[in-house]
Amino acid sequence: MRVLGSNAPSHDLSAAPAADGHVVAETSPVPSGAADQAVRVLAVRLGSDGEVLVTGPAIRALAATYGQVDLLVSGAGAQAAALLPGVTETLRFDAPWSGPDPPQVSPEAALDLVAGLIARRYDLAVIFTSFRQSPLPTALLARLAGVRRIVATSEDDPGSLLDVRHRRPPWLHEVEACLELAAQAGAQLSPDDDGLLAVHPSLPAAPAIGGPGGSGGDTVVLHPGASTSSGAPRPEGSRAFAERLAGDGWEVLVTGSAVERDLTSYVAGDHAVDLGGRTSLAELAAVLRAARCAVVGDTGPAHLAAAVGTPVVSLFAPVVPLEHWAPYGVPQFVLGDQGAACRGTEARRCPVFGHPCLASVTPDQVSGAVERLARRPAAASAGSRRADVASWPW
């Protein structure tokens, strides 16, 4: 990965407004073999690991169409970027307009980024953002760097910063919104790409697991933390879930980052295996891939589970829309009061006393959801992951 601080011929991506108000590329999607045209593409996703993971299918579409795709991420998304297929080079820039704890504005860092982009001579930049995030600061720096065409979704008037201004339909899942933006840049998935989340198939070995249960087989991952406190169940609730699942006969693996060790130790108690702080994101992917099911809130590991094809019991707080951020393309069961008073507030801390949307989830509900997903009949497990989604409702 490069921390920022040959001439390629250009590809025509001129744009014009469509009848429905979208701005779309006039050129049709580039046919297979267009990589020979050596269009150099920069994809940008300045967000968390989860946000980077849900951008993966769109990045694969860009790579299938144009050949070389570099990915600019922040430090918060760097581990996920290293796992994505289709990325040629990963660049890092910690933007002062992105993330829960952004750095102070640094003219030197911004100029260093611009210099790095100038040196790479990008023909096209596609800036991926979520709802209410603005692509315009990044677009300004890309424009200063001489990027020929810049494509992004923007509710704000972009002035001369964007060549293709896309307006996102409100009902799209984040994965589909990213794919739609890639399509505005003329990109399409290859015919054999299912458009689901994915990581590189070769993952590091999972850490040695020893602890209660010792079944060595039927494991369930419980991830009690989240990047925002509003997206995680209460610790005592997670501990009760772990104890109930262990009582059901599952080997429960409690996962978390190094800063969550106190939480994972409490949740694991003497009835589960505490993996807090013992896995990188790639190692966590290996743990999830080997599990029968994951129980997790609205946070990056939910999308990582989806990327390795593991069913998810989603403990989803409705501070953000479920239709945008539910785990994508895997069997799932959503628990949590989706009509709670916090709905749509985008709060990072629960604005309602007692965290009722997730405090209402019971160990019995979690047990039943895991049983339903992890012990699916063999016929339900066969075929594509898309077929599984159709067979298993939220």
Automatic annotation (TrEMBL):
Name the SUPFAM superfamilies on file.
Answer: UDP-Glycosyltransferase/glycogen phosphorylase
**Which Gene Ontology CC terms are recorded?**
cytosol
The UniProt keywords, alphabetically, are: Glycosyltransferase, Transferase
Q: Which organism is it from?
A: Myceligenerans xiligouense
What biological-process terms (Gene Ontology) are attached?
lipopolysaccharide core region biosynthetic process
The beginning of the lineage is: Bacteria, Bacillati, Actinomycetota, Actinomycetes, Micrococcales
Decide whether keyword Glycosyltransferase is in the record: yes
Does the keyword Glycosyltransferase belong to this entry? yes
- Can you name this protein? ADP-heptose:LPS heptosyltransferase
- Cite the GO molecular-function annotations of the record: ADP-heptose-lipopolysaccharide heptosyltransferase activity
